[in-house]
Design goal:
Blueprint (H helix, E strand, L loop, with lengths): L2 H11 L10 H18 L6 E2 L6 E4 L5 E3 L18 H12 L4 H28 L3 E2 L3 E2 L11
Antiparallel strand pairs: 1-3, 2-3, 4-5
Helix pairs in contact: 1-3, 2-3, 3-4
Length: 150
């Protein structure tokens, strides 16, 4: 999903509520906060890395790290998370802005994150059974964060 599409999705979620701020820096701050919240609850495969860098958020499975996603610079930039997590990101940001439905957006985001995290666990178990992943040797990163790439 592009940054422009994410903003459109958030505006849709906020119909009849507070409006999404137009100021670029405010919105980027909200995206950054939402990225941190999202990464603390879900293991985004696109963000897994074996390199410990200054932008590491937390430890991942098998000796990996979850890196901080890159912030978008323009509306045509793709969001730097797994595409399945974009609806959760939109919900998290909507919860920051919403006057009346903040808890609803949080609950929906959590539901998306739990479902995604469940899929990631199944993926990692499949990788373990195929000998492509174990705690001692580390994790082989999927192509473009595709949890179903073999």
């Amino acid at each position: 999903m592009t940054y422009g599409r994410l903003k459109s999705a958030i505006r849709l979620l906020l119909i009849g509520d507070n409006e999404l701020p137009d100021e670029k820096e405010q919105l980027l701050a909200a995206v950054e906060m939402a990225y941190l919240q999202l990464a603390s609850k879900a293991t985004a495969l696109k963000l897994l890395t074996t390199t410990h860098a200054s932008e590491v958020i937390r430890l991942g499975p098998g000796g990996t790290y979850l890196r901080m996603p890159d912030l978008p610079e323009d509306d045509i930039d793709e969001m730097d998370i797994d595409s399945e997590l974009c609806p959760a990101l939109a919900r998290i940001i909507a919860s920051y802005v919403s006057r009346d439905k903040s808890k609803l957006h949080d609950m929906e985001a959590d539901k998306i994150l739990r479902g995604y995290e469940s899929k990631v666990r199944v993926f990692i178990e499949e990788q373990e059974s195929e000998g492509k992943y174990n705690e001692e040797e580390g994790y082989t990163e999927p192509v473009d964060g595709d949890m179903y790439a073999k």
